[in-house]
Amino acid sequence: MHDDITHNAVDPNGIYTTSEAQQLLKISSSTMKRLLKKGLIKANKVGGQYRILGKEILRLVSPELEKKATEKYLNVKKKVVDTINEWKV
What is the pTM for the complete model shown? Predict the structure, then answer.
């Protein structure tokens, strides 16, 4: 996902604002809002503003998460292809 975010750049125990997280992840504010709304990134509201733990930012860019997303995509793709092939019969 974002190879330039390293464990040195993000403190796993650090607390980041949405703006700081956006800059680290190189995403727009609308993407950040979407991630928060869908629960794809965990955050706590403090004084009406979200705060995000560094470990959440690191989780988003981890190779393990990317691997899981790829596996899910391939499973969905296989199901779609199987369904289409059933229609052809």
Answer: 0.62
